[in-house]
Amino acid sequence: MSAEYEAVIGIECHVELKTATKMFCGCRNEFGGEPNTKTCPICLGMPGALPVPNAKAIEHVVTAGLAFGAQIPAFSKFDRKNYFYPDMPKNYQISQYDMPLTVGGSVKYWMEDGTRKECRLTRIHLEEDTGKSTHAGSGDGRIAGSAYTLLDFNRAGVPLMECVSEPDLRSADEAVACLESLRRTLLALGVSDVKMEEGSLRCDANVSIRPAGSTELGTKTEIKNMNSFRSVERAISSEIDRQIAVRDSGGRVVQETRGWDEVRGITHSMRSKEEAHDYRYFPDPDLVPLEIAATATQRAHAASDALPWQRFERYTRTFSLGVKQATQLVDNLKLGAYFDRVVSLSDRPQQSSNFVLGDLSRLANETGVAVADSKATPEQLAELIELVESKRINSKIAKDLLTRMWDGAGSPAAIVEREGLAQTIDPSAIEPLVDEVFAGNAKVVSDYKGGKTNVLGFLVGQVMKASRGKANPALVSELVKEKLER
Ligand SMILES: [Zn+2]
């Protein structure tokens, strides 16, 4: 981006909540299925049908709010947001206007280089999702010669949480890192499956630019239709460039909603941006205001102690793991829990991380079995780490044992005991093997003495082999060198 301008970005995320039923009726809340098979008079907006709020959905929003350090007002209410699209059978959406379920808080996130940042949240409110429209052109024979729209109301009335941020983000990278943190937190809380590809997480971004150093906000545009974090990154970057070009050519950025065109890699104007008064919000007369019990708040709070941000801090600061390692463990909940268990048993975070993210993850990839579901238990791995750290076995034996543990061989300490695999660290036991190898490789030894020092590795390897892999490699190397120099 040009050094003369600074980007100012805020995000809005719509998150479908994981509940058994829809927000205001008893229809199943599931993705997919034949169109219009999960509907009833309430979610189809039939006259006289009355909505009943889903307690679980409200609890999910409160849980999320607390995880982000938001305030939970004791009072909240639902409002009608009036607008007219075919996918809105009632011609209004039940949403929340001036009394959302949560207020304030922030999303803490980290960049790839480990820099910590924070984006304040304005609010999180609860509403119902709309149905799905599919626009089709003429010519497929269904409706001759005209464009038409197919409607599926299976999604209509699914509980939808909207998280709105303050304009605290300054680049496309920051927006993506913040969204990733938001996503992994909601996933850890179990309130949504947050799948962008299935639409259970949908992100919009508000983008404006201003002269660097200015504190005023420029005119913003809202970007929609971004289907992956990669599109979010590309769309925001492209919109920043577009706004700079408009300003540099003496033009004025217009407040509007712009769609992201994935193929062409540009945003395009969709419609002028609505203002809140366009929606004619008013309290929904069918729904009584909500009073959030303090006990519900406490219960939600108790469940939020092992959140991704806290885990990232523990892994990087207390355990001194790298940002990449920590992120991998944070993002894989089951693997992270496995790792935590190994550390609690072994008290060796770095070694645990090396084995879990290294050899064990490799075995998982090769066999298609997740580490946490494998036969190698955290208890066995902690035992193995202890065997290596106390120098009872060398790393070669450790690798072999790991593969055997993976296949269900059980306790590595028992195998070492039974098969006499303990490492030989007694020089008097290794020296005869060195003599034996030297005697059998007289030519190699004389090559070394003639200046071909790169044969050292070969001789060490032969001694290791003679010890059936049990000798301490460092000690072998030392003894071989000593004898060569003699
Ligand atoms: Zn329904």
Q: Keywords, please?
A:
3-stranded antiparallel sheet; 16 strands; single chain; 15 helices; binds zinc ion; 486 residues; elongated; alpha+beta; 9-stranded mixed sheet
Short overview:
The chain has 15 helices and 16 strands.
Fold and architecture overview:
The chain has 15 helices and 16 strands. With 486 residues, the protein is α+β, with helices and mostly antiparallel strands. The strands form four sheets. Strands 1, 5, 6, 7, 10, 11, 12, 13 and 14 form a nine-stranded mixed sheet that branches. The N and C termini lie far apart (65 Å). The site of zinc ion (ZN) has 8 residues, from loops.
Mean pLDDT: 91
Strand content: 15-25%
Structural class, from helix and strand content?
A: alpha+beta
Helix content: 25-40%
Helices and strands in order:
Blueprint: E1 5-16, H1 55-67, E2 75-76, E3 79-82, E4 92-95, E5 102-103, E6 106-110, E7 116-128, E8 132-136, E9 148-152, E10 159-165, H2 172-189, E11 201-211, E12 221-226, H3 229-248, E13 256-261, E14 266-272, E15 282-283, E16 290-291, H4 294-302, H5 308-318, H6 323-331, H7 333-346, H8 349-367, H9 378-389, H10 395-406, H11 412-419, H12 427-440, H13 442-449, H14 456-466, H15 473-485
Parallel strand pairs: 12-13
Antiparallel strand pairs: 1-10, 1-11, 2-16, 3-4, 3-15, 5-7, 6-7, 7-10, 8-9, 11-12, 13-14
Helix pairs in contact: 1-4, 2-3, 5-6, 6-7, 7-8, 7-9, 9-10, 12-14, 12-15, 14-15
The structure holds zinc ion.
